[in-house]
Amino acid sequence: MQNQMRKYLSLAGIVTCLLLCLSRSAYGDMLGTGLEISVSGDLVYDQGVNSGSKADEKLRMRGAEIMLYAPIDHKFEGVLSAAAHDENEETVFELHELFMSSSKLIPRSTLKAGQYFLGIGRLNRFHQHDWPFTRAPKVHRSFFAEEGVFDAGLEYGLVIPTKQVLNLTAGVTSGYRFGHSHTAGSKPRAPTHYGRLSSFFPFSSLSGLEVGGSYLGRTDAQGNELRLVGLDVTGKKRKARQVKYLLQSEAWYKSELSAANVRTEQVGLYVFNEFGLGQQTSVGFRLDGFKDLSKRNALTQKKLNNVSYGSLGQFTYSPSEFSKLRATVSHEFQREEGKTTEEDTRVSLQLIFIIGSHPAHAF
User: Fold this and answer.
1) What global pTM score does this model have?
2) β-strands 281-292, 59-71: how paired?
3) N- to C-terminal Cα distance for the chain?
4) pLDDT digit string (tens) for 317-330?
5) At the N or C end, where does the chain have fewer CB atoms within 10 A?
């Protein structure tokens, strides 16, 4: 009964928010306030192929997002993003982002205050429906949860005017929780702090390569320390408005030191390539790798030789920038001491649509 009530309240919240957004949009247009509204839907169906697959084999509403963004005044902009997710067969409605930002207070700088997705890596800086593939690689799911890490705090961005222009992002957030959580969390001993330094190398007016290095650290209320170090690479080759080739890759190292002084280390990466076949179609391929550097045999306490591999192939049909239909075949397997312990092969179908406007991404 309680779960049903929560579901109905969540659905009521979505409908109410949507009606308010549409009403506000009409007034905003008449008054010339510059208010923009975006509503996005992300539907996914997973079909398991082998007996070990953990695919849920049903069409699920992975995400429904409502975003409002507009200038607040001549100095600040504001963003509100709320999303509904299907979690354990329940519709959960939650606030993702609510922040104000400005690029007009300090020269070559951007300030952001509120709740937002942390500005590190590549995938974590984008909403899930904007990812170039359906399911995140294992390294992202293990280190950042299914979607990403958002928190409340302050973020500062600076364009360093060196010969090779550098972009610095640094931030501090509350750190009461990390990853996807519906609890209030506890006051950490050291809040979440992070940074990213990146640079862009142009090949032409339409193509280029961005390289960035990221760091994140925090110490939770129990004294457990977390450290993340990552490298992200993104390259695009464009012809007019079409992306003819996309390269996207991230490598991450994670170190955790427990309050009992036990250290665990993990490392993972993915490499994704996508090729444009025409104005509306593309094919993509991704290779993943993940290794637990601290995994030990329960009896001998010797380190285990273990590694997780993943690969996928996908076809994307996108008649416009507001809709996508994506079909994917993926295979993941875990090996320990030369033996396959887990195996998951699945076929996925993803439907994405956007109603209204959508903010442009820098690259």
Assistant:
1) 0.89
2) unpaired
3) 46
4) 999 989 999 999 99
5) N
